[in-house]
Write a structure and sequence with these properties.
- By secondary structure, this protein is of the alpha+beta class.
- It has a single domain, classed as Alpha-D-Glucose-1,6-Bisphosphate, Chain A, domain 4, CATH 3.30.530.20.
- It is built from five helices and eight strands; from the N terminus they run ααββααββββββα.
- An eight-stranded antiparallel sheet has the order 1-2-8-7-6-5-4-3, with helices on both faces.
- The radius of gyration is 19 Å and the shape is globular.
């Protein structure tokens, strides 16, 4: 009987399929979150809801956040997707489109942020897939993050006159930052970003 031989190429494609399945399953789990009644009560009163959780058995943090903006989704979308507005939404952060085009469905963006009290200067490269005017899914393709994947969802409220912005992110960094300190930085920075987004969306009305 001829012995069973597994060619290296078969091992490669088999491993790639397993990794793709794991990645897609993880992203689906991350994106499954929706605001609880407590979160909805918070955002309807004009506040930002945020929770930052530790993923068991890892140094990964999971962010759930939401905000209501009294501007239609198209207006909020225009602000969020404008690379030139990134320094306004996230202080001391630049944005450059490396490849692709949002109008064709996806692009790759490079962001470089300056040092602050918690984080050193950081380099971040992500691929973003767009479903206008409702969904942006992103995942890491390079930079200082070990893990970075999640999505932005825009849901119309008030008969389309307003937008509920939902943000979900799963991340870990390739830097010697203690996990609790990283999560504390996210609790501080994400609400600021969402408040800046609301301010910019309302300024364009």
């Amino acid at each position: 009987m001829e012995s069973l031989r597994i060619k290296p190429v078969h091992l490669f494609f088999g491993a790639a399929a397993v990794l793709l399945f794991i990645a897609s399953s993880t992203l689906a789990a991350v994106a499954h979150w929706s605001p609880s009644p407590v979160a909805v009560a918070s955002v309807t009163q004009g506040r930002v809801f945020i929770e930052v959780l530790a993923e068991p058995g890892s140094n990964t943090g999971i962010i759930h956040a939401a905000i209501d903006i009294p501007a239609p989704p198209a207006r909020v979308w225009a602000v969020m997707t404008d690379c030139a507005r990134t320094p306004v939404l996230m202080a001391n952060t630049s944005c450059r489109i490396v490849s692709g085009d949002m109008r064709s469905g996806s692009d790759v963006r490079e962001q470089i942020s300056g040092r602050n009290l918690i984080f050193p200067a950081m380099h971040n490269v992500v691929r973003v897939d767009y479903t206008p005017v409702s969904l942006m899914r992103f995942r890491r393709t390079g930079g200082d993050f070990q893990t970075l994947e999640g999505e932005w969802r825009l849901e119309p409220i008030s008969n389309g006159a307003g937008t509920r912005v939902i943000y979900v992110n799963r991340l870990a960094v390739n830097l010697p930052i203690p996990s609790p300190l990283m999560r504390e930085g996210m609790r501080r920075d994400v609400p600021r970003m969402l408040m800046n987004l609301r301010r910019e969306a309302l300024a364009g009305r």
